[in-house]
Design brief:
By secondary structure, this protein is an alpha/beta fold. It has a single domain (3-285), classed as TIM Barrel (Alpha-Beta Barrel), CATH 3.20.20.220. 47% of the residues lie in helices and 14% in strands. The protein has helices spanning 3-9, 27-38, 59-70, 85-98, 127-136, 158-171, 184-196, 213-223, 229-238, 242-262, 276-285, 287-290; strands at residues 13-18, 45-47, 74-79, 102-106, 142-147, 175-178, 203-207, 267-271. The protein has an eight-stranded parallel beta barrel with strand order 1-2-3-4-5-6-7-8, surrounded by six helices. Helix 7 links the parallel strand 6 and strand 7 (203-207). Helix 5 (127-136) packs parallel to helix 6 (158-171) and helix 9 runs antiparallel to helix 10. The protein is globular. Bound molecules: flavin-adenine dinucleotide. Residues 48-51, 77, 79, 104, 106-109, 126-128, 146, 152, 154-155, 161, 164, 168, 177, 179, 206 line the site of flavin-adenine dinucleotide (FAD).
């Protein structure tokens, strides 16, 4: 099922992100963890894709298995920056044959050793080119794109970033999923700016539950997200007690999600990090709200 149809059919949605195994020897373990998350019957499940090919090998296999065996619609992430147009054409055909109907079309991070290369010679410099190729393939995909409430780190400023986002939507993005954020007010003002810019597709809010103090540095590094004092106080108070920190971090994520739903943001995507107990806690905490 297409994500846009899921959004139309349900007043509120709650979806989860998982990542595929990195290596063959962890395949069974990771597959099992993801299958357990699928038993929670999220609105859909998205499967990430490594930019440099690192964790991309099993993305489609996992996405197809979840769709076929658990009847949960899946969203395959696809990055383009390290691929040729020919690679991507093959990949698009494979995804279409698998029956996975949704693609999150991403550029991917530029590998460090290629940052200073002349990008005019690359097949892909931006996600918009991937969106164009998917649309030109004629296959009937529902296409998503990434968006950044706190501005993508490479963008000159917020206006430029939103201008580029509008290009992606005009080229055929059906929905957007946001980078994680920890302060809902930043997301609300971002939504106003998108609507002002004429971006009217659904914007799915990305929430990352922080369950340990060491996860914070990683989240900061990956997203550059602002951490409000209210959140930092939890870490300060509970950071050295694993169980207490997990409980406090999950409660914070739930309070963000409930506030979003209460303010009319009806579509939430949770970065589960393949952790069943995280997905289960969140699903259980909002079960009446999303019913
Ligand atoms: P783009 O949309 O191409 O934007 C990148 C930058 O270029 C922005 O600053 C934008 O303003 C600018 N820009 C865009 N178009 C143009 C243009 N035509 N000319 C000039 N500037 C332009 N990474 C992975 O490797 N695997 C994943 O599975 C993955 N999943 C993700 C899921 C979500 C929800 C999000 C938010 C991110 C994900 N990422 C993933 C990270 C993503 O690949 C990086 O953030 C990457 O740096 C940018 O990808 P993008 O698709 O947003 O790029």
């Amino acid at each position: 099922m297409k994500i846009t149809d899921i959004i139309k059919k349900n007043k509120r949605t709650l979806s989860f992100e998982v990542f595929p195994p990195k290596k063959a020897d962890s395949f069974d373990l990771v597959k099992e963890a993801i299958e357990k998350i699928a038993t929670l019957q999220p609105s859909y499940l998205s499967v990430t894709y490594g930019a440099g090919g690192g964790t991309s090998k099993y993305t489609l296999e996992i996405a197809k298995n979840i769709k076929d065996s658990f009847n949960v619609p899946t969203l395959e992430h696809l990055t383009c920056v390290s691929s040729s147009k020919k690679d991507i054409a093959e990949k698009i055909n494979k995804i279409a044959s698998s029956g996975v109907e949704n693609i999150l079309a991403l550029r991917g991070d530029i590998p460090e050793d290629r940052i200073n290369e002349d990008r005019s010679t690359w097949d892909f410099s931006h996600a918009s080119e991937l969106i164009q190729q998917i649309r030109a393939s004629g296959k009937d995909f529902c296409i998503g794109g990434a968006c950044y409430p706190e501005v993508h780190p490479e963008a000159k400023n917020s206006s430029e970033d939103i201008f580029r986002l509008k290009e992606k939507v005009d080229l055929g993005c059906d929905f957007l999923t946001s980078q994680m954020f920890f302060d809902n007010s930043l997301f609300y003002s971002f939504l106003y700016r998108l609507r002002d810019a004429g971006i009217n597709v659904p914007v799915i809010a990305g929430i990352m539950p922080i369950t340990s103090a060491k996860q914070i540095e990683r989240a900061r590094r990956l997203s550059g997200s602002f951490m409000p004092q209210k959140f930092l106080s939890l870490v300060d108070r509970f950071g050295d007690d694993d169980k207490a920190m997990k409980q406090a971090g999950l409660s914070y994520a739930v309070s963000q999600i409930v506030d979003l739903y209460a303010n009319g943001v009806n579509n939430i995507h949770v970065y589960t990090m393949n952790n069943y107990s995280v997905a289960e806690f969140i699903k259980h905490s909002v079960s009446e709200i999303i019913k």
